[in-house]
Amino acid sequence: MGFIETLQNDIKIYKDNWSKIQDKIENAGIIGIWGTGLAAQQVYKDLCAMGYVPAFFADNDQAKWGTLYKNISVISIDDIPNNSLVIICANVKYQIHQQLQRHGIDNYMYIDPEYFQYLPNEQVRDTINSNADKIERVYTILADTESKQVFRNILLHRAVHDLELVWKVYEENQYFDNRIVEHVSGNFVDCGACEGDTLQRFLAQIGRGGGKSELSLLCI
Description:
This protein has helices at residues 3-16, 18-26, 38-49, 96-102, 115-118, 123-130, 132-141, 145-160, 163-169, 197-207; strands spanning 30-34, 56-58, 68-69, 72-75, 84-88, 108-110, 186-190, 215-219.
């Protein structure tokens, strides 16, 4: 079975499992959303459209505790009922799931803000089929198993918007993995720099190599 066929089968499995996601939401005693940003706003909107109004928003920002967001209370993690289903609308790097686990809350899931809008949607599968030769060529070029897995997970995430796929391949040194790229040198452009956290990790990473690299860096 070729890579494209496997990828399309994976997408079909996600579509078939959609009812299980709906059952999990429907059977939840209490539904809450972690986060109060744009992602949380989109998930809130989609949940309400499905007929499920969240009971609370939760956030680590103490300044938000006791306030209202979308006319719903914002609470701390200490106030989350243990029988809640917590839909996490935050980057996996913040490890919200570990905080919930430490508080005895095991019913949670990460949700991409576009997830509820994906299914059913055949456009992604058609796009993959129309670019099958290019995708298959890239997959073949990749030499190691880890790179192939990352490529597969990212493509599948773009199709089904399951953040766990990104979570499984995420690592701190995501752009220059020292197991693959031993020495960094040359000219690099950091496009779309926001807080500069990726740049800070990158500079710390190359500083651990023991030697000096000829490096020019431009941030945009």
